[in-house]
Amino acid sequence: MEAVLKKAGKSTVVVLPRTVLKRLGIGVGQRMSLKVTADGTIVLSPGGKLALADMIAQCDLKAPEPADLALWKVARPIGQDVW
């Protein structure tokens, strides 16, 4: 079985056949673990679940708030919005 490399923006992605995803019990958006062996073989396996603490650890809590977020704080409801 072969996988195809495709361009996605400035990245390169691997297209996996649906049968492989089904066999592994994974789908779009799920994490995978990638390892490269000494002989250059790529090994992909389903990744573990990411805990909230892991996600927070990746954040820069001292980063400034995006400028466009300020608009959300002062926006008034329109249409059928519930507040």
Q: Specify the overall morphology.
A: elongated
Encode the helix/strand succession as letters.
Answer: EEHEEHH
Rounded to an integer, what's the Rg over CA atoms? 20 Å
Count of discrete structural domains: 1
Widest β-sheet, arrangement of strands: 1-2
Class derived from helix and strand content: alpha+beta
Overall CATH class: Mainly Beta
Largest sheet: 2 strands, antiparallel
Number of strand segments: 4
CATH topology, by name, is: Pemi-like Protein 1, Chain: D
Tell me what portion of residues adopts beta-strand conformation: 15-25%
Instruction: Give the overall average pLDDT.
Output: 85
The end-to-end span amounts to 53 Å
Number of helices: 3
Poorly predicted regions = none
CATH architecture group name? Ribbon
Short description:
The protein is an alpha+beta fold and about 80 residues long. It has one domain (about 5-65): Pemi-like Protein 1, Chain: D (Ribbon). It contains three helices and four strands.
List the defining traits of the structure above.
alpha+beta; elongated; 83 residues; two-stranded antiparallel sheet; Pemi-like Protein 1, Chain: D; 23% helix
